[in-house]
Amino acid sequence: MMTTLSTSLNALPAEHRQRLMRIAREVSFPAGTRLFEEGGHADRFWIVRTGSVALDTHVPGRRSPVIETLGHGELVGWSWLFRPYVWQFGAEAQTPVRAYEFDATSVRLMCDDDPALGMAVSQWVGRVLAHRLQAARTRLLDLYAPYGSGSGVRR
Amino acid sequence: MTAVPMTAVPAAHGTSVPVPYRVVARWEETPDTATLRIEPVGEPLPPFAPGQFAMVWAFGRGEIPLSVSAIPTTGGLAHTVRSVGAVSEGLYAAEVGQVIGLRGPYGTGWELEKAVGQDLVVVAGGIGLAPLRPLIRDAVADPGTYGRLNVLVGARTPADLMAKIETRQWRTAYTGVTVDRPDDRWKGQIGVVTKLLDRARFDPHNATAFVCGPEPMIRATARALVHGGLAPSSVRVSLERNMRCATGHCGHCQLGPVLLCRDGPVVGWDRAEPLLYTREL
Q: What average pLDDT does range B18-38 have in this prediction?
């Protein structure tokens, strides 16, 4: 497996990772469970162990379109780290999901108490965000259209 | 397009004269893409290797380069064509029994044989799966020769996925399919195809990747693979340019010092990357 080490929890130094894992709770969700709703208070986050979580957004009058799916080793939720701690999207278990759940307030307090841990966690979440921004930009190119978003010779 | 009656003629190997092939089967892959199974009317062209291409004639319209999308052991060939212009529209609409013209084989192949003993990572964008299909079939048919086979497919929508049933049937270490824009029935992955690399099973230090799709997708995928530890020379990409003569003479397909009809379409990322990032090319 080519793990994206820079965006997985393993990117954290071992001592910081162990401190985080000490407050992790093992949770599981049946398929279809709503983990959080757009606009809600971001009070926790998850690392997916197995299964798949879909991020979606609310569009009045139609089924919520799914923006992205997250799987093994991926972070679900980053809004807990930045004020005003409000979810930007909704999330739903697409399949049965097992995950590690973290209480956001506890993690933020740990980060406040230990600037080194705070820096490591911020950098980790920052890398996740950068990775997702890059993926979103790539998708904006409409890669799979004939000749991508550019023009080409059509014969 | 009107079918042109043809009689058996000797194949004109090494010339620019198209050899007649008859469409013996046709099926739709996506709403604008079809695969044509063809057999020679007379003497066949020399054997094609996976990744190579033919110049395919729609008589009365012109010719376009098309990679082979199947090389059946029983003979004949298959080409997959997306209707995007006058010639490709004519080929897309070709009916069973109709005769088309072929020149070839041209260009470099995937060279799967150089990846013996290695894990294989096949990454396809949209109908980029078509040129990769013969390679995947070879790897599936000979599992003891290679390491773990991974097939990653990305498409714009579920309707744009080709060979859906066959993709599910390939025996691989990992098969991942993702789309950018799901419909209401889609239950699979959503996101860019590069995300699937995290789920694929391979040793980056002993793997070869084969990538085909639109050029922005190739660039994003090759960068992710190299970032993940693959040597640039172990990432083989299929590039598309405006191929005309296919014999390295006209220069239409020139990319810097490379004539893609002759030196490509399959090249190593170590060679392709500096050319693709040169603005003047």
A: 95
Which CATH number is associated with domain A17-140? 2.60.120.10
Segment A56-82, tens digit of pLDDT: 998 887 778 898 999 999 999 999 999
A146, closest residue in chain B (CA to CA): B214
B48 vs A132, B34, B108, CA distance in Å?
Answer: 40, 20, 10
Measured between alpha carbons, how far is residue B63 from residues B241, B244, B267 in Å?
Answer: 14, 8, 23
- What digits encode the pLDDT tens for the residues A93-149? 999 999 999 999 999 999 999 999 999 999 999 999 998 898 888 888 766 665 443
| Chain A environment of B197 (Cβ under 8 Å) | 2, 4
Better-scored residue on pLDDT, B222 or A58: B222
> What's the CATH number where B36 sits?
2.40.30.10
Chain A residues lying within 8 Å of B184, measured CB to CB: 63
| Closest approach of A82 to chain B, Cα-based (Å) | 24
Asked if the structure places residue B8 within a domain, the reply is: no
Is B221 found in the same domain as B162?
yes
Q: According to the model, what pLDDT value does residue B249 have? A: 82
- Which residue of B192, B212, B221, B239 is the best one to mutate when testing the A interface, meaning the one whose CB has the most A CBs within 10 A? B192
**Is residue B133 domain-shared with residue B158, that is, in the same domain?**
yes
CB within 8 Å of B81: residues ≥ 6 apart = B33, B34, B35, B36, B56, B64, B66, B88, B91, B92
Chain A residues within 8 Å of chain B (Cβ atoms): 1-4, 52, 54, 63, 65-69, 71-73, 94, 135, 138-139, 141-149, 153-155
User: Which of A140, A144, A149, A153 is the best mutation test for B, with the most CBs of B within 10 A?
Assistant: A144
pLDDT at position B68 over 50: yes
Residues B148 and B95 both lie in one domain: no
Dihedral pair phi/psi, residue A2, rounded to 5°: -95, 85
Given this model, what pLDDT does residue B15 score?
57
Range of the domain at B76: 19-106
